[in-house]
Amino acid sequence: xxxxxxxxxxxxxxxxxxxxxxxxxxxxxxxxxxxxxxxxxxxxxxxxxxxxxxxxxxxxxxxxxxxxxxxxxxxxxxxxxxxxxxxxxxxxxxxxxxxxxxxxxxxxxxxxxxxxxxxxxxxxxxxxxxxxxxxxxxxxxxxxxxxxxxxxxxxxxxxxxxxxxxxxxxxxxxxxxxxxxxxxxxxxxxxxxxxxxxxxxxxxxxxxxxxxxxxxxxxxxxxxxxxxxxxxxxxxxxxxxxxxxxxxxxxxxxxxxxxxxxxxxxxxxxxxxxxxxxxxxxxxxxxxxxxxxxxxxxxxxxxxxxxxxxxxxxxxxxxxxxxxxxxxxxxxxxxxxxxxxxxxxxxxxxxxxxxxxxxxxxxxxxxxxxxxxxxxxxxxxxxxxxxxxxxxxxxxxxxxxxxxxxxxxxxxxxxxxxxxxxxxxxxxxxxxxxxxxxxxxxxxxxxxxxxxxxxxxxxxxxxxxxxxxxxxxxxxxxxxxxxxxxxxxxxxxxxxxxxxxxxxxxxxxxxxxxxxxxxxxxxxxxxxxxxxxxxxxxxxxxxxxxxxxxxxxxxxxxxxxx
Amino acid sequence: xxxxxxxxxxxxxxxxxxxxxxxxxxxxxxxxxxxxxxxxxxxxxxxxxxxxxxxxxxxxxxxxxxxxxxxxxxxxxxxxxxxxxxxxxxxxxxxxxxxxxxxxxxxxxxxxxxxxxxxxxxxxxxxxxxxxxxxxxxxxxxxxxxxxxxxxxxxxxxxxxxxxxxxxxxxxxxxxxxxxxxxxxxxxxxxxxxxxxxxxxxxxxxxxxxxxxxxxxxxxxxxxxxxxx
Lengths: 562, 229
Fold this sequence. Notes:
The structure holds 2 protein chains of 2 kinds. Chain A is built from 13 helices and 11 strands. Chain A is an alpha+beta fold. Chain A has a 5-stranded mixed beta sheet with strand order 6-8-9-11-10. Chain A has a 4-stranded antiparallel beta sheet with strand order 1-4-3-2, with helices on both faces. In chain A, strands 5-7 form a two-stranded antiparallel sheet. In chain A, a hairpin with a 2-residue loop joins strand 3 and strand 4. In chain B, helix 4 runs parallel beside helix 8. Chain B starts with a strand and ends with a strand. Chain B is of the alpha/beta class. In chain B, helix 4 links the parallel strand 4 and strand 5. Chain B has a 5-stranded parallel beta sheet with strand order 2-1-3-4-5, with helices on both faces. A 4-stranded antiparallel beta sheet of chain B has the order 6-7-8-9, covered by helices on one side. At the A-B interface, helix 7, strand 5, helix 9 and helix 11 of A face helix 1 of B.
């Protein structure tokens, strides 16, 4: 129910949305646009929710999925932290080593640069040029050609004549600022490993040499290509290893949960089959762990259920056999008695008065006895659950007419009249006519019994789904609370009243069962002093549910009086 | 001449009482108390009608019913202690024409028996034809003969009566209740199973395809009528 709620809400939304769209767009275009935008957002949200729907359902439905995903996320986070830490440590180490080596190399180079440049004088331009050129060549031999570093020499003296002597390669401004103030410094920056070559990550170390009339700045550009490759390799390795580890852990989680979940699923399936009626289903149990104990307990439960149900079935079978046997065994002698009584009864004129009266009483009480036996057997058939509906299409009016006809004699004896209101057209209803006749016979018989000689009104009506018959009497009616009791077995409205129909006290109880067997209703209304009304409502087709009755339960004349 | 009745019932008290009632009503009853001897007794006494208890020691009532029906169309009325549909329909399907449920009133039983015996003294010569023109069913009422496509169809007297009742008014729709009254002699009682089962039996004999009847047509919600002549 909860899962369906959003879809149902969406459906009820839809007609409202289309109906208000037209006037809005015509009268207020701006408001319409805003409305549409809002609607668009809502519809996108709906769509997303719909898309997420199967995912959330799978999430809540599968324990295995939940465990696997949770394990994946947690182990992923852990591996990520470890990976980042590892990569950080390794790359830090590599760079530290490179830096120490670079500083050592710069120190070596400076050992020869300092004397060579320190004694020059910027007034002697040629001297400066020569010294720088010599130094470059020397450092190139040690560093540049070995691929260790490239040297860039600058000066704070800007002389036209020296423009070609000094390099104008860019160096990081912060670094240059430090060097210009005479402090040795180093910085990671992107460098050109050779003149005109590609720009790569690197380390720049700068030192200054003070000369007369000016200052030299010497920058050593160390490319870090090798180190970068090493770090990239480490990163790749850690990433791959981490991914592998995470997947592996998740797989382990899936496998482990499967060991637990599978037997639980088997148990659930088996339980569903048992619930579906196959009581012989059992779980195969192996081992003696918790899961095996679950299976064992389940099997014991199913076994005990099966035993009890078999016992009940056997009892029910016995009951049915008993009913059938009693029926036969009682009926045969009763037939003989009935015939003997009939013979005596027809010849009663020949007997002395007391014997004749005895024959009459015997005959009358036999009728009652027969009725009681028939009703008892019928109700025991309902109790045993063997009553079956023999439904066919029949005009309900003809059934009513037949019953009314058969009750005319009784009505005449009571001095009552039976008034019928039936529709003019056919009322075909799928019913078991034997049972419906029995219901109507009971209702009309009761109405005559309690109607105190006033008319009994029988009304028939039908709509597309249901047909109804009401039987109304204007007799003593019922006391409050009695309406709920009339369908009880052997219940009598007024024990002191003489009853002419010789009812068995089971009539209405059987009628109620008959109505229920049709999927119909049998209901009573009664009011002290204004009589009673019984309403039988039957679906036009067997098996179709009833939602309303074509006739009211409370008669119109009683409503007016209230 | 008194009509002969064969009573097949294992309850001797009931059999004796039936004898008293039947003799008083002008029948000539013969008795047999178990199923095994029922068929032999039937052949010896050649009754006009059989009263048959369904629950018998030895051969069951249903088997006796089938055995008698196999060699004769004599009316059979079942005496049954069970009014459950299965039992009644089984009895009717094994060939019984009618049934009374114990405990029955003697008058009711006699009325049913008379209804079953009544039609045998029809003498008026009458010939009826119903069914599709290319393959009509012709009925010789006096001769008790039904022919279709040149062959004689053997019907029990009850099936014959049912067919004649429908064929006499070919365009009229008969409700089951009307048929019960005309053919079985019922009043006020309405056991439509009786009509349904016998219509099925009749169809299985006269129709070319009982699933698509042409002679005895069902009118949904009302009853039956004869096919067009």
